[in-house]
Each structure stands twice: as structure tokens, then as C-alpha cells.
Design brief:
The complex is a heterodimer of chains A (112) and B (104).
Chain A lengths: L2 H13 L2 E5 L9 H13 L4 E4 L4 H11 L6 E4 L2 E4 L1 H10 L1 H8 L9
Parallel strand pairs in A: 1-2
Antiparallel strand pairs in A: 1-3, 3-4
Helix pairs in contact in A: 2-4
Chain B lengths: L13 H13 L3 E6 L17 E7 L8 H11 L1 H5 L4 E7 L1 H7 L1
Parallel strand pairs in B: 2-3
Antiparallel strand pairs in B: 1-2
């Protein structure tokens, strides 16, 4: 995989506290697994950057190699890979995602 | 181990290969592999021939002391050929025997 793609990802996950590599956009997810993670993040009131891998085939493959993770979506917090849909869902249900974000100093605004 | 004798003359389904592979790799206490491809009809990654989307629940002592990401990576590594061969989505529920007992 070209350094260009890795550098792009590295920069993206470093400059943005919460990044979701997904299929589609947060407003229009094009995959049920991506949609579920978006739903969780929105429910928690987390500001995040959604990156649509369907717009760039080199990114779609590159993100899998960057994280050594074979599927999409992929959530990054504070530059670190957190997990895909299953892990994000499990962490959210266990209250661990909220804690993880708090530990990284990322604000959440739970729905009233 | 083979509890579907009527299928023995058929080429192994991907679900059967996944199960056999994970049994070898993790010696699980419990394993369930569900082919969920039909539910993703027409979605991204769907193929008319199916065998693209799977749900797996695996209970294994090997997961003790491992993070969620580490457990998933171990399963992904065991199934790398299935990903290379067109498997598109793999939903995982990976538990230690203790976690599985607490779920009940």
C-alpha cells in the first residue's frame, strides 16, 4: 500500500479526535454496520469526522492494512484504532465507550 | 462432530469451513456460525451466490486475558482465507467461558 494513503490516514486520525471510516456518510450511511456506529456516536453526542471509503478505492483497501482489520466501519479515537461495529456496540452497551472517550478528554452530550 | 450427515456429499459450505477452522484454532466450549447473507440481499458486498455475511459466537478459554480487539484479530487471522475468498462481513461475539456463564 502506498505511503500516500497511510500518511493521509495518519494525518486524519491525528488531527481529528474521533474518526469513523465508513461506507456512506453520517447522514446517509450505505451499510447497516456503519449506520449502527453512527447511531451510537450520535446518541452519545460525540463530534466525529465520518470518512466515506466508498469514494476512494485506495482508502478502502488502505484503511484495512493500516489497522490490520479486514472490515469497515472502523472507529479511531485519539489516533488509536478502537474497533468495528461489534466492538463499538459491546463497549457502548457496557459503558466502556463513554469511559474511553472521557479518558481521552473527548466531550459527550448524552441525549436527555 | 459432523451433525449434518446429509451434507457430507456436498462441497463444504463456507459456514462449515468457518466452524471447522475455528474449532481447530480455538478448541471452543461453544460455537455457533450463522450464514446471515440472505438478510443482506442487495446490500453492499452482497453476491447472488451468497456466502458473504456471517455471525459467529465463540466461547473459548483462549480469549482469557485478551482485549476485544485482540480476540477479533485472532479470529480474523484464522479466517484469512475466507476473507480472501469473498467473505464480506463477519459479526463476532467472542467470550471466555466465565463471560458466557455470566450472560445466562
Amino acid at each position: 500500500m502506498s505511503n500516500v494513503v497511510f500518511e493521509r490516514i495518519q494525518q486524519e486520525v491525528t488531527e481529528n479526535p474521533v474518526v469513523l471510516y465508513m461506507k456512506g456518510t453520517p447522514m446517509f450511511p450505505q451499510c447497516g454496520f456503519s449506520a449502527r456506529v453512527v447511531q451510537i456516536l450520535m446518541h452519545m453526542g460525540v463530534k466525529f469526522k465520518g470518512v466515506n471509503v466508498l469514494e476512494d478505492p485506495s482508502l478502502r483497501e488502505g484503511i484495512k492494512q493500516y489497522s490490520n482489520w479486514p472490515t469497515i466501519p472502523q472507529l479511531y479515537v485519539g489516533g488509536e484504532f478502537v474497533g468495528g461495529c461489534d466492538i463499538v456496540s459491546e463497549m457502548f452497551q457496557a459503558g466502556e465507550l463513554q469511559q474511553h472517550l472521557a479518558d481521552k478528554g473527548i466531550a459527550t452530550q448524552p441525549a436527555a | 462432530m459432523q451433525d449434518r450427515p446429509t451434507e457430507t456429499t456436498q462441497p463444504a459450505s463456507r459456514a462449515a469451513r468457518i466452524e471447522a477452522c475455528l474449532r481447530r484454532a480455538f478448541a471452543p466450549e461453544a460455537i455457533a456460525v450463522e450464514d446471515d447473507s440472505a438478510r443482506h440481499f442487495g446490500h453492499a458486498g452482497y453476491r447472488p451466490e451468497g456466502e458473504t455475511h456471517y455471525n459467529v459466537r465463540l466461547v473459548a478459554a483462549a480469549f482469557r486475558g485478551q482485549s476485544r480487539v485482540a480476540r477479533s484479530r485472532a479470529v480474523h487471522a484464522a479466517l484469512v482465507e475466507e476473507f480472501a475468498g469473498g467473505m464480506h462481513a463477519l459479526s463476532l461475539r467472542l467470550l471466555t467461558p466465565e463471560e458466557a456463564a455470566a450472560e445466562r
